[in-house]
Design brief:
single chain; 153 residues; mainly beta; four-stranded antiparallel sheet; 10 strands
Amino acid sequence: MHKILALFFVLLFLTGCNQSETVHTQKLNGKWNKKAEQKFEINITDAQHPKNIIFVVRNNNDYPYSNLRLIVNFSDLKNKKTVTDTLNYVMAQPNGEWIGKGFGDTKEILFQYKLDYQFPANGKYSIGVIQAMRNDNLVGIEDIGIKIETAKP
């Protein structure tokens, strides 16, 4: 009886997982060099469905700024076309309180990059992220990630 109950919970867990979402993360361990591009290679197999591309940033209390500037290189690896964007995201409220969620010193925040983005075709794409702050070695960023999810109609 216990085995059947355990199997039921495993199946329930697996069917409850969101199959239309993937997250890729790069660990920075609290220090991000200005020349260190964080690359994420993604494989799109259902380009007919629009996607949301969201950055996931985890920072700690050592982060010295209230914003984060990023240079993003978005590349279609098939046709070698690259689009570069310069982005500025707010990470703290005017009183200095972090916007992200989490316990202790580390907070996680989601930043929208492209919403309802229609990939031109199935295939491999690359998203490179460079920090564009004034520090050569930016402290306080634990890791950065990218979340790709199917947009809801």
